[in-house]
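Dear colleagues,

As part of the handover before I leave the project, I'm documenting each prediction I ran so the next person doesn't have to rerun anything. This entry is a single chain, and its sequence is reproduced below.
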Amino acid sequence: MKKLRILSTKKLSPSFRLGLDGSAELFEIDFLRIQQLPLDKLESTILPLLTGKPNLVFTSRHAVLDFNSLISQASALDPSAWQVFCLSGATKTTVRDRLPDAHIAATAENATALAARIAQLELSEVVFFCGNHRRDELPDLLSHKGIRVEEVIVYETELSPVEAPENLDAVLFFSPSAVKSFFILNQLKENVTCFAIGETTAQEIKTQTKNPVVTCNHPGQTNMLDAVNEFAGKMKI
């Protein structure tokens, strides 16, 4: 039986590789480079924002990790006073792991839904930790609702386009930026199926190609794995 050739546009966890249907051959290539900004340049900006009872917003696990790197070197902070609003999936898992004392006030599966949850609470301001290629939906919606958004960029994302292997059956995308990077050097044959980690990533895929798109019902590698294995099972029939 011919093995399915599947490309992931990021390196995956060992559990994903172990759980992948045995009829699939997996290629893993990072189409993005993530660079944390120097902590000494951020400290004077971020630490004053963490006094009192701030409302912190995260829409990526990278933002959580880099934020945690900063506060691990700071003292006199009280994370138990922080309200955190974040995406579900990997971002929420990372918040629980790295900021266990903070209170997760609300989560959502995408930035638009998260902004709607925050707006319902009628907060006066939030601090949004993000990368330089963050999408506009969340800050735009909150600003429209009269909520002040203090935006702090803690990491930079650089596109890293690479020529993909030939004769692929599927490509896995985990962010809109990865989609943009992939299509700089690559085009897909009509029979290739695209998998999107969420709706915003799916929307970006649809701007680049007319190939079929499978969108995960919930963010996270586990749900992506389930979708890919279901696809592999159907291809065997």
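Residues 35 and 187 are 27 Å apart (CA to CA). The chain has nine helices and eleven strands.

All the best with the project,
I.
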